[in-house]
Amino acid sequence: MAKKRTTKTGLDYSTAEVQARKYYIENKSLTQDDVAKMVGVTRGTLNKWSQAGDWDSARGLSEMTPLQIERMVKEQMRKLLSDETTEEEQGIAIRKADALSKMNGVLKTLSDPERKVLNALDTFEEFNIWLAHIDLEYSKSLSKYQLEYITYLTKKTSGQN
Hints:
Oligomer: single chain
Number of strands: 0
Largest sheet: none
């Protein structure tokens, strides 16, 4: 019986690829070199996996909210209905709208509680930046309640209630 190939960290290659994809897509601060080292493969192997799986596109979409994806789908639909587009442009718009629609469906069906915490953090961060330009002191005072809410969500997702 043939022995399975393992990475420098002892993972079999299929497990390493799954973990690498997750690390790369969910952690924008990590480079491909960082992820390759984490799972014990060469940069070339990781790059091959990334290109084959279009990880860069998934990485960009991983931070989009369902509302942002919905807007992109509507924009593609508008392009489809426009008399100004060529058949080639319509074909591209159809493929994009279809892909975005499918991704949005996946996002809506996923009930990942940790994602709720991350979305709340992202929303609060953007809101605080916006509000600070209007009323810095009020923005600071809201931060206390936002932190309490994030703590509540975190406990809720871990079952601590």
